[in-house]
Q: What sequence folds into this?
């Protein structure tokens, strides 16, 4: 099999983040019987569906579990993933420096919180979104991002309130519709989940991770109707 194609280098974060990436936890028993090809496929799937952080975790597990099969191409791929994750940490440092200046602005708080979200540091991200909202209570992106942080922190009712408020402020934000769909999906409410995700698709079919959740919602709805 040819060596995997390195991931696209992450561009510098824009002035205001429009959504979040989801990061989940790898369950150890599932990968114990993977072949080398299955490991490589899993790393690629993690990258496409969840982002660099989970792909890097999976790559490190591949290296640990099957060191004899972890070749030069796999090492190069892992290095590129690590570089992209490191860029997120550098962006956090950049925004922290900006926030040390007098009169910090909304984008620095919101974007530092966003970078923390991508790294899976959900509880750490919430205070930044609180500050962004305190500075400008009509900031839809900060409500949406905080809603997702609440969802991943196990505070579902707060998550729903924030995401819905974000949509009141900006009804055409595909990221907020996607997050609403994720909320409903994770609550086992597949019909409203699919409706929210399809609305997100109609607004912007390229919204990250949208297609994956659309597939999950459709499959779960089909299974529940049988």
A:
């Amino acid at each position: 099999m040819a060596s995997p194609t390195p991931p696209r280098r992450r561009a510098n974060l824009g002035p205001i983040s429009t959504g979040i990436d989801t990061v989940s936890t790898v369950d150890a028993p599932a990968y114990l019987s993977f072949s080398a090809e299955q490991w490589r496929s899993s790393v690629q799937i993690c990258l496409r569906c969840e982002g660099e952080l989970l792909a890097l975790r999976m790559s490190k597990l591949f290296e640990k579990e099957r060191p004899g099969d972890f070749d030069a191409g796999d090492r190069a791929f892992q290095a590129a993933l690590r570089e992209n994750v490191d860029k997120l940490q550098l962006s956090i440092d950049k925004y922290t420096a900006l926030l040390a200046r007098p009169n910090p602005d909304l984008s620095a708080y919101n974007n530092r919180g966003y970078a923390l979200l991508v790294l899976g540091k959900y509880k750490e991200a919430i205070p930044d979104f609180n500050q962004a909202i305190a500075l400008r209570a009509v900031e839809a992106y900060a409500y949406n991002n905080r809603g997702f942080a609440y969802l991943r922190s196990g505070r579902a009712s707060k998550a729903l309130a924030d995401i819905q408020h974000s949509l009141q402020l900006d009804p055409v934000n595909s990221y907020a519709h996607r997050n609403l769909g994720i909320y409903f999906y994770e609550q086992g409410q597949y019909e409203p989940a699919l409706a929210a995700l399809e609305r997100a698709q109609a607004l912007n079919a390229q919204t990250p991770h949208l297609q994956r959740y659309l597939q999950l919602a459709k499959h779960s709805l089909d299974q529940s109707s049988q």
About this structure: DSSP finds ten helices and no strands in the chain.
